[in-house]
């Protein structure tokens, strides 16, 4: 059951209304007094296409993001950016360019460029220490793959136990059993078994 807030002529105030139908008009019923009324459907929001620069590991490409007119987006939001060939990528907004300034938050139609990084497929950097030296390793994975503290992983025939995880925001996760998703990880530190 969909609910909307609308003015009820019987209750003489804005009340919660149950949506009964959404065809040419919106038919709603007041949940307080039961009055059924017909309202014009609100207009469909207009799409706004914004240029998006998507960074994926060592490469960048130009895409576009479809936002809705009046939609407010900010740094840290997750959206989809699509190339002209139709290939899309889940991205995290890293910066917004409005005019000649970089801002933290903006309305869709004011944005010139969205600077982002792909989070659907990422490379996780893992440093494996064997007691004498540290071996740098790289694992390609989905952005939502989990890495858990104290988990045993096997990379290119090297078995290691995850000791701690450094995140992109500067935090370090050390608590046993705690996990982080790949697209938030800067580096995983592990000890060879």
Question: What does this entry look like structurally?
Answer:
19% of the residues are buried. This protein folds into 3 domains: 3-40, N-terminal domain of TfIIb (Single Sheet); 47-118, SH3 type barrels (Roll), CATH 2.30.30; 121-192. With 193 residues, the chain is mainly beta. The mean pLDDT is 90. The chain starts with a strand and ends with a strand. Strands 13, 14, 16, 17, 18 and 20 form a 6-stranded mixed beta sheet that branches. The chain has a 5-stranded mixed beta barrel with strand order 5-6-8-9-12. It is 0% helix and 65% strand.
Topology:
Elements: E1 3-8, E2 13-22, E3 25-30, E4 36-40, E5 47-56, E6 59-68, E7 72-74, E8 78-82, E9 88-98, E10 101-103, E11 105-107, E12 113-118, E13 121-129, E14 134-142, E15 146-148, E16 152-155, E17 158-167, E18 172-173, E19 179-181, E20 185-192
Parallel strand pairs: 5-12, 13-20
Antiparallel strand pairs: 1-2, 2-3, 3-4, 5-6, 6-8, 7-11, 8-9, 9-10, 9-12, 13-14, 15-19, 16-17, 17-18, 17-20
């Amino acid at each position: 059951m969909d609910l909307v807030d609308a003015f009820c002529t019987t209750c003489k105030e804005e009340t919660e209304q149950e949506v009964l139908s959404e065809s040419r008009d919106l038919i709603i019923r007041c949940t307080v007094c039961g009055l059924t009324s017909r309202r014009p459907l609100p207009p469909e929001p207009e799409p706004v296409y914004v240029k998006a620069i998507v960074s994926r590991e060592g490469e960048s490409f130009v895409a576009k993001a479809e936002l809705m007119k009046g939609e407010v987006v900010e740094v840290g939001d997750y959206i989809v950016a699509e190339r002209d060939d139709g290939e899309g990528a889940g991205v995290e907004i890293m910066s917004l360019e409005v005019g000649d300034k970089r801002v933290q938050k903006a309305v869709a139609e004011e944005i010139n460029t969205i600077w982002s990084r792909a989070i659907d497929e990422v490379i996780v950097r893992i440093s494996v220490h064997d007691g004498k030296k540290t071996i740098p390793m790289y694992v390609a994975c989905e952005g939502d793959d989990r890495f858990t503290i104290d988990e045993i992983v096997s990379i290119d025939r090297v078995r290691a136990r995850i000791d701690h995880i450094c995140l992109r925001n500067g935090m370090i996760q050390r608590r046993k059993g705690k996990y982080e998703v790949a697209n938030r990880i800067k580096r995983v530190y592990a000890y060879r078994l």
